[in-house]
Structures
1.
Amino acid sequence: MSSIQIKIKEKDCQKIKEICESFNNDPGELINVLHKTQEYFGYLPAEIQEVIAENLNVPVAKVYGVVTFYSFFTMTPKGQYPISLCTGTACYVRGAEKVLDELKKELKINVGDATPDGKFSLSCLRCVGACGLAPVVMVGDKTYGRVAPEDVKKILEEFNS
Amino acid sequence: MTLINIKINGREMQVEEGTTILQAAKKIGIEIPTLCYMNLHDLGIEHNPGGCRICVVEVSGRRNLAPACVTKVIEGMDIKTHTMRVLNARKTVLELILSDHPFECLTCAKNGTCDLQRLAQELGVREIHFEGEQSTYKEDFSPSIIRDMDKCIMCRRCETMCNKVQTCGVLSGINRGFEAVVAPAFEQDLIKSPCTFCGQCVAVCPTGALTEVDHTNKIIRALSDPTKTVIVQTAPAVRVALGEEFGYPAGTSVTGKMAAALRRIGFAKVFDTDFAADLTIMEEGTELLGRLTKFLEGDKNVKLPLLTSCCPGWVNFFEYQFPEMKDIPSSAKSPQQMFGAIAKTYMAEKMGIKREDLVVVSVMPCVAKKFEAQREEFAVNGNPDVDYSITTRELALLIKQSLGDIKDLPDEDFDKLMGESTGAAVIFGTTGGVIEAACRTAYEVYTKKKLDKVEFTQLRGFEGVRSAVVDFDGLKLNIGIAHGLGNARKLLECIKRGECEFHAIEIMACPGGCIGGGGQPLHHGNSEILKARAAALYKEDAEKPIRKSHENLEIIQLYKDFLGQPMSEKAHHLLHTEYFDKKKKIYIE
């Protein structure tokens, strides 16, 4: 008959408390609180959502509902080298989807996930403003243009060495 | 109040400003079909997300069809509720919903009571013109409730009950689009959430997505095992609702036929949970008087108010949400568990049966009772005091399987030893009943005077939070009553803030008390049904020769032969329990 336990580091707990307080612990500010928290931690794991729920006095199911509704929020940490693939119109028509398939195959992960070793994570975004280079892939802050599926392996190798 | 002129199907009428098309149509006898909509009149809860689009109607001058449940009438509105365009649209909407619904109707627990099924019949859907992906989701089996989200149509009624009415905050809509589902946080199973198993979500689910765990087969197996003696107890609220499953009007008391049916199904003894309710009053009433006496003597450490503890949904609620107050509720077990504990000791001894060979079945208006029955503290060496707890609906199923109907059965009595009950026990089934029963006994024990009039009508009613003063011959007792966990929360928070001073409080998890329990025949939000059930209980109370728990002859016998005194060491061991802090804990590393 024991209760469920959640473990979190003290400084993380303190930071979340500060963020919630900066919005007066107002449950109506849940989305803004999640925004700020994700900005700081990079993602929103379960224990962080629990602490937010506690501070704002809302059910954690509701917090989880909001986190899963908006695609901007993520529960998986970003990799050391976050990979973003542009799927904007220009990149899309020039074969971004095939590049994405290749990335998924090479990394063995889906969009929104990170590799088990934490090295890479994969996300899609809409237009980086370099349509002339379509399709565009960004790894960290490095940009690759006119990427073909067969280039993917080579790009990843640069970060694997 | 401003009146607005509108036209429905060519008929002119005036309605109040703020009326929806759905309500206006109802006034002239037109029932627009709905699916996600839910109106729990007396709770003040209207659930109208306008999501399913079944209730669409045509409004002149408006390009698209309007959902009647959320569209308010405006001056001059010309509404048509069943044009060909409307009927076709409704059918299309329903076909789209059905295109992502498993066709398991014949084997579904809700077969025959499903709103989706009924609607498909009423709208004349004979073919599904759409084919597409089917959403699949893991099933969740808890001790009380089964979640089969493949059958969910996202009406989100359960979410309203869980969050707005019961304030448990367990269920929430998660993900979006095709992936959307109603689930506890992090898609964990109910058992890992603060779910109280009150079953109000089950009670309002239009489909088979939320159902109770069905124990009828286990009971049939036990009944056919020659080495087992199977006995049954029935809760007060069951007898005034069971009839509805067999076509009787709401508020028909079928106590005698129910006892006859149970005997014919094959139960060795047909007993009454009401007997245990009288026992509960003896223990809880004594506990109340004990605390009160100490309080009046100036003891500052005494815990008041005393909170009732019969309701397992409520017990779960305070263990999760208000664990800091877990010393306040009465330590008395619920009638179901008192019955089990006494049956497997006192009765087993008298009948010469070994504990392991005795199977105790309870029939409850409740799904939380299933969870309660399997709590570790209510077992001896792994053998539970109550083996199986079934709902009123499951009993109806068991009767239909075994006997077909109850209509032609004679009225029979409960068996002796644990079958006698008083009027006080009968009213346990409705909000305010437990505390009224407690007052009848506590008054006479405290004042040593006979009550002229046993009814404490000031404690009756349907308001969510009520308070009343009961005069114990000069000692004025402040009594609080709440039904529905959201109302219970209001009372608890009031106590926490130190703003209200009560001596005793009765809390029932379900709106209306047990008569509105999650295991009862579905009332589809019609509170008139609840009122009829409550009236039937008060009528049965009034007709009982004995109406005070301490005058129950079998209870007097039980104390004489077995327990000694209320709150004796033996009584404490068998009839009292403790509560646990189950609030989620955040640990700092």
2.
Amino acid sequence: MKKKWILVLFAIVIVLLGFAYINRDQNKQGTSITAVGSTALQPLVEAAGEEFSKDNPGVFVNVQGGGSGTGLSQIQEGAVSIGNSDLFASEQTGINEAKLVDNRVAVIGITPIINKNAGISALTSQQLKDIFTGKITNWQDIGGRNQKIVIVNRTQGSGTRITFEKWALDNERSIASQEQDSSGTARQIVATTPGAISYVSFSYADKSVVMPTLNGVKPTNNNVKTNKWKIWSYEHMYTQKKSDEDTDKFIKFVLSKHVQDKLVPQLGYIPVTDMKVERLE
Amino acid sequence: MDKIRESILTTSRASKLERRGKIISLTCLGGICLVVVAIFGFIAYRGLMTFTSDHVSIIKFLTGTEWNPSVSKNGAPLVGALPMIAGSFLITILATVLAIPFAIGTALMMTDITPKTGTRILQPVLELLVGIPSVVYGFIGLTVVVPAIRTVFGGSGFGILSGTFVLFVMVLPTITSMTVDSLSSVPKDYRSASLALGATRWQTIYKVVLRSATPGILTAIVFGMARAFGEALAVQMVVGNATLMPYSLVAPASTLTSVLTTGIGNTVMGTVQNDALWSLALILLLMSLAFNLAIHLIARRGAMKR
């Protein structure tokens, strides 16, 4: 009796493995596109992927997070079809950009966020720099309440952090402090911790936190378009130089008028075509 | 005559079965050994890259206090892991020390004082505590413990103390259930003899039961420490993840696991930043080995005493 059960179990395992093998084969034939990387870009790729599958039955777009670094390294190794990144490939160490094709699909603005009871609604670039480099440690020093400043950073190597340090802190590095690995957590901590400051992309900032003006400029999409608001980055979908047909088709779809005019603004991103300026690095 | 001869010289069905069983078990064992060796090999290989190809000295890695792998100073990247190592040890030790009295008290309740209620109510409660996923503990920590510590002690609420409270709840069931096992394995004769000599229940527990169960309780504690040391998600959510030396219990700090989980997605395989994280993983692995070794040593010493 026992023996029979073991035999049945073996048979089941073998049948399942067989199924797995068959499915794997089909995937390789190009019915699935895998996009991995930036969590900031993930919602857009997911939404676009769903619509793409509707128009192209049988092609499935599989979107995973993992961070910009993961996206870039996976596409470089050819393990995935698309690597999503907030950064240019040249900004990430260990990536050979000559091997990759850069598809800029959207632009996203990044804003500092401050806890409400700090009593601050305007900052200058210099003040922002002084806060993140540890020269100013109390909101009182720049006209706020008597409240210690709590810096909440994103993890080292995060696309948002690299963009923020580059364009808001003029390439200076923030002092060591709390680090959070997702935009949502960073916002929640700033919203609930007195005196906290952090930075998130526009789509994550809401009424629970204060978005200060920087040198008198408000963090809005229109100011990003004219480059008056300097802290923004492209959202890239990197592909290999020799990508398969379905991947090319999907990238084309994301760059199409339909996605760019409807989905992109709907999800809080800015279409690349709306930008009045261009950045090369 | 021939038939007997034949049955003696050929392998019987039973021995064939035995051989087959042996082969299957050996293959399974071999497979598992292979996996373990492969994991060790891989982590050691990647973890040692920091020292071999990125030219970081091991002493600097273990004693440096500045963690900034993408910045180089004097030809070597700034990878001082001491803040994380100190954070991990502090949280582990504090959480375990806090949990020990509660664990032993609960275990005694379950074995000696009120065995019936103990097994009917406390056992399911403990099993439930073990079954709660760590992300839930972390979330409760983030929404309850952190604000509570912020109101009581000031600061941001993130730090070693919050991590300690969360881990305390997480290691408590582990230590308690293993302590229960070792307490109930104390022979009944010991208790009866002690009571017959006129000792009170407290005296029996304190002088006889706890004494003879000491090796088992120590093993339980080390097991709890190993669990605390390796816990990643719940701690990461409440500790603050600041790679600073923990100068205060309520200031943001970091542990080996929290830096690993937050950092690994943002690095590229083969770069200094990535290698440095593998080195942290290697330290974690070595530490869990050390905990295992400690458990074996305690068990052996305890066994010799009897």
3.
Amino acid sequence: MKKILICTALVLAMTSCAFGAAFKIGGTGPLTGGAAIYGNAAKNGAEIAVEEINAMGGDVQFELRYEDDTHDAEKAVNAYNALKDWGMQVSLGSVTSKPCEATAAENFADRIFALTPSASSAAVTEGKDNVFQMCFVDPNQGSASAQYIADKKFAKKVAVIWKNDDVYSKGIRDTFVEKAPELGLEVVSETTFADGNDNDFSVQLTDAQNKGAELVFLPMYYQPASLILAQAQAMGYAPKWFGVDGMDGILTMEGFEKSLAEGVMLLTPFNADASDEKTKSFVAKYQAKHGEIPNQFAADGYDCVYAYKEALELAKATPDMSAEDICTKMIEQFTTMTFNGVTGENVKWAANGEVTKDPKGMVIKDGAYVGLD
Amino acid sequence: MIFLNFFISGISLGSIYAIIALGYTMVYGIAKMLNFAHGDVIMVGAYVCFYAISRYGLNPLLGVVIAMAACTLLGIIVERLAYKPLRQAPSLAVLITAIGMSYFLQNTALLLWSSNPKVFPSIIGRGAFKLFDGALSVSHVTVLTIATCLVIMIVLSLFISKTKLGKAMRACSEDKGAAQLMGINVNATISLTFAIGSGLAAIAGALLCSAYPTLMPTTGSLPGIKAFTAAVFGGIGSIPGAFLGGIMLGVIEIFAKAYISSQLSDAVVFAVLIVVLLVKPSGLLGKQLQEKV
């Protein structure tokens, strides 16, 4: 029942290439489906970067194309193949983890370099020398969250509710639970749910409440999180809530009562309220074009394209080179360069494709994201 | 007290399954076909209700009435286009058509309303009745769902046993050919069954989304399957059976989650179903029909 055939709208990101020669950059993401908020955000962010770079008219010009994968691994591979036929030279991988694990394997086999904006599971980069991430890898998100909660002394007793059929959720939960005791956090309640069959979180929430959890950690996407928040309110349970980057997007759900998310904290590398020039200009452009504040996924997409620009310039690559030659050069550049973007300063990559940058704590206040620090 | 809390959670989840199962079981009982698109009609009903309430700011009750009208119409159209031409076809063909219809409705919803999840405004708010100084809480939606279930159950039972149309339905269910010979318009009777079933789906949709407020094109499909299980559990075709099956399924699911494992709850639910079917193949309240050869 789940393999829904979706009329895939072919989304062409048109870019003007004044000189005819441009690097073909392609990515897949959920442009429709339950995770569409992420896919569209990453795509919109990348588009803005491409427009800016092409308008500057430097040596490196881009032609961007995004294909819909509906957050489905099988469709992601089809979408990837469509991009390959189109002549993609560098890839943005996939936006979400499960599909990206599938496309990353293809990237590796075809020697097409990939830099995913937001697919954060460890398996995405594991054993692949040419797949890199712009976002934190899941294990880092888990330990960084535990560290942050302990440093800020938000709680001693925590509960974790995680999704047991999702690599993203499991990856974060594993390291969080491992790291928590070292930092003096006690995980008093740990409960799970699975895709689709669980809309009822009363058991999980009752367990957390009875065991006296002061903070509930939610390593999951925003859609189940919205149900959890609503049900906790209905049963009169009001712990502190702590989410990860998947929580980003909860405020833009149509019909969502923003008051439910009041005080929800999340760890994300991007803060739309930051006062530096780069962030301000990006946020203003995004808002003018799409009528909403960009989330972390949009910022990741934006940064990916700029990171490519820098790396391609440093490598003196030209658009007539084959994808394989570019791939070799990109591996060289990404493991040595330092990048400054809207999702962090002094961003560096390890040889295994994992990124190093500082996470920022955010809290939802009066229906908007505000920096915690 | 925690036990009672879980019990109440189970009943509230079960009441949602029950109200969906009523639609399944009614259509099966009369038309002898499994309408797998029932869950998707529920989704359409929920969307219509969502737009009426959220976008046009109508009174929730009016929203539900509009959704019922829309779903009834949809049920009639679906029946006319997809099921009626197959009246003489083997039941397997009708079953596959129903699955196809289910996909068709989901994908049309995807095109019309996009896949971004929407948050359904509860039709009666998110409040709860507090008992024993707040140690127990029963949400308003649960009470409303159970009350609605009971009302629908009683009205449907009366309708089928007391009215002329109901009598025609029972006749069709027993023997279509003989019913036709007795001057009953079999086609119209079956169409009417679908219309009623779809109207009920709209109510189920509004209640489902009031309890679990995410609305997506796939919202109806999984609860639909669970409700189908509930209907089989209670004895498919039996109206009180659907209610009993739904409530029991919900309670077993929550208890399994709470006391066995949150990962294994579905496995436990289906294991119980298998045991019930082994002991009583026609379900808890199902009728054992002797096929005459």
